[in-house]
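Deviation from plan, reported transparently: pyridoxal-5'-phosphate complex.
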Amino acid sequence: MADRVYNFSPGPATLPVEVLEQAAKDVVNFKETGIGLIEMSHRSKEFMAVAENTEKLLRELMGIPANYKVLFLQGGASSQFFMIPMNLLGDGKKATYLNTGTWSKKAIKEARLFGDIDVAFSSEDQTFNRVPTQDEYTVAPDSEYFYFVSNNTIYGTQFPKFPETDSILISDMSSDILSRKIDVSKFGIIFAGAQKNMGPSGVTIVIIRDDLLDRTPAGTPTMLTYKTHADKGSMFNTPPCFPIYAVGEVLKWLKKQGGVEAIETRNVEKATLLYDFIDSTDYYRGHAEKSSRSFMNIPFNLPNSDLEAKFIAEAAELGLNGLKGHRSIGGCRASIYNAFPREGVVKLVEFMKNFESANQG
Ligand SMILES: Cc1ncc(COP(=O)(O)O)c(C=O)c1O
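Because the crystal trials were delayed, the predicted structure below was used instead.
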């Protein structure tokens, strides 16, 4: 196997090597059955056990209460942008959204196809460099739900505290699920694409409070109705077998690391190493305001775009890959999800110091 590099990609992203190695074996011959995992019927007892185990571990690690269903869906996190309003709105019903980045903007656009959407806050005119505090917005009282993105992958902002609301709280946690301890019972729906903190792309996890399953307007297509999947344990049709398996392996790994609380401590430590360095020099500038900083994605700029291109190229030569910022804001971005090793951050900081001294004015 080629030497592995430090992969700062925003998603699909670094996964634990032990998970990749186990998966490589199981794809060829799953548990000595003589059948590869991806060749196996999704209704076989072996695969049913895999899916049950993934759900059980997720419930355990996140503390998901019994009155919530866990769904394994396809169509990416982006399909939740329309599935949520399609199932919960209709007939002039209203919802409130916070516009804190590209992914909330896309969700708002889709939601407007199904109802009356109130955007209670937007940081778009500040290039989405912060998330609001509770006193900066109000949730329309007749809202069916209140929607926000917990971590803004592109702009590197994250809600340090979740919004408090009497409305049904819905969150896109695609880029910070399982990275910090949360109280699931405060939410109506939490969803996340797997490809950052949980596994490969191809499965989207939806955690939904069961009373929300009965609100879907008549005429909604069967596959796009949450209840269809909830009633059939995500086996109404062929589920994304390999991603469900791989998420289960990542969850086993996470449990071995000490679970969400332990990984949260490490995530804070890793991000702090990088932020402390950025704050110690004027050469690098973080994109996000300090009070909104993400522990998962850290976008930053150098004095100019030529230096940024040079920085990214030289970093890659040293095995520090995937540092190019998203095309919407340019610059650089280090994504350091749960499985990203601390040594990679240490190496990045060391490189940043050297680059700065070698490339003045
Ligand atoms: C916060 C957030 N939401 C949604 C998405 C879209 O996910 P998908 O590509 O699975 O549709 C992304 C992708 O990066 C994301 O970061």
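The CA atoms of residues 180 and 262 lie 9 Å apart. We consider this an acceptable substitute for the interim report.
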